[in-house]
Design goal:
Blueprint lengths: L7 H18 L14 H32 L21 E5 L3 H11 L12 E6 L15 H13 L4 E5 L6 H8 L1 H8 L2 E3 L6 E7 L3 E6 H5 L2 E5 L1 E5 L3 E3 L20 H11 L4 E10 L12 E10 L2 H12 L5 H8 L13 E4 L2
Parallel strand pairs: 1-12, 2-3, 2-7, 3-4, 7-10, 8-10
Antiparallel strand pairs: 1-11, 5-6, 8-9, 10-11
Helix pairs in contact: 3-4, 4-6, 8-10
């Protein structure tokens, strides 16, 4: 019997099978014992069930493997506290405004005492940009290349032994570095640029709740760390800035950090105690972050803020975006990582022209 849609033969099989079962049920002498044939529908249902079961087992295996990795092994290293003791007269936060991003960076850092007060000839300095996406500088999803280049130059001028720029983009790392302009700018300024695919990973315990993770080696070997995030909107966390920027220390299973994401951000920040934070608000992605894409979502702010209180700097970034503080700021403050009331730090404000 010919069928065009795969149902005619199936219905005939089922009808025959039903008639056989009915004859047997009525006590007919000639009725054979009931027999359940392997109809197409039953085969498909069985196959679908098997696939669903295999899928469930696959998901369970992924979660089991993740838990074993995070809670079933010892950390090789720990990440130390990279902060530097400074004289009481040094301001804790500086805001610099002007048309030139590099000039804003230089003015802010110099007012904080200068890079030479933070970096020595013995130091390996790790500069952490926001570099998540294959986006141009105009699209404002990443730190502006001029900002990164100026930080590199200042570290080189301070005599740092090595200056490394490193992050984990969500995609092809080298392509993101190229499109963002950070690769060319950082290398021209004298930095080593390390991409995740070419780096060794080291196991580090983030927190009791998050367990042990594979962290890019440059973050472990650095003796000074400078966090250089961009201030932007984030569709999950509301605002993305310095605290959220620490997600980029790993490219391994980052989706697991999104379980109670606000607390994960704060716990990462508790482990990563940078020497300095420089917030790039030269161009700000006001909507549709973190990736953005449309220039209509970008606002030119021409501002850089720098300082030693990462919570205060994130709180300031929220005011630039006109958004409420995300939950991670309150959690980080409760953990003693800084204060949300950035105005209480009495930020020094500068104009560079």
């Amino acid at each position: 019997m010919t069928d065009r849609d795969g149902t005619t033969r199936e219905r005939a099989d089922d009808a025959s099978e039903t008639a056989t079962e009915a004859t047997a049920a009525s006590g007919g002498a000639s009725a054979p014992a009931p027999r359940r044939g392997h109809t197409r529908r039953r085969v498909l249902v069985w196959a679908a069930g098997s696939l669903a079961g295999a899928g469930a087992l696959g998901v369970s295996a992924v979660f089991l493997t993740d838990r074993l990795k995070r809670f079933g092994r010892h950390a090789e290293r720990r990440i130390g506290d990279h902060r530097v003791a400074l004289p009481g007269a040094v301001p804790r936060m500086v805001i610099a405004r002007g048309a030139d991003p590099a000039a804003n960076v230089r003015a802010a850092v110099e007012r904080l005492g200068g890079m030479a007060a933070l970096v020595t000839a013995a130091d390996v300095v790790l500069i952490k940009p926001s570099l998540g996406w294959e986006r141009t500088p105009e699209q404002a999803a990443n730190t502006q290349p001029e900002v990164i280049a100026e930080v590199v130059r200042m570290c080189r001028a301070a005599g740092a032994r090595r200056v490394i720029v490193c992050d984990c983009p969500l995609g092809k790392s080298r392509r993101a570095l190229q499109v963002s302009g950070i690769l060319a700018a950082a290398q021209a300024a004298g930095a080593e640029v390390i991409v995740p695919e070419e780096s060794r990973y080291v196991t580090v315990e983030i927190s009791e709740r998050l367990g042990t993770w594979d962290v890019l080696e440059p973050f472990v070997i650095a003796t000074k760390i400078i966090n250089v995030p961009t201030a932007k909107h984030h569709d999950l966390t509301g605002v993305s800035c310095g605290l959220k920027n620490w997600f980029g220390i790993t490219a391994k299973n980052r989706i697991m950090l999104h379980t109670d994401v606000q607390r994960s951000i704060a716990e990462l920040a508790a482990m990563m105690r940078p020497t300095l934070t420089i917030v790039d608000a030269s161009r700000v992605l006001m909507e549709h972050g973190p990736a953005g894409g449309s220039l209509s979502d970008v606002k030119t702010v021409r501002t850089v803020a720098a300082g030693f209180d990462p919570v205060a700097l994130d709180a300031w970034a929220c005011t630039v975006l006109g958004r409420p503080f995300p939950g991670n700021i309150a959690i980080a403050e409760s953990m003693g990582l800084g204060r949300a009331d950035f105005a209480s730090l009495v930020p020094v404000e500068l104009t560079t022209g």
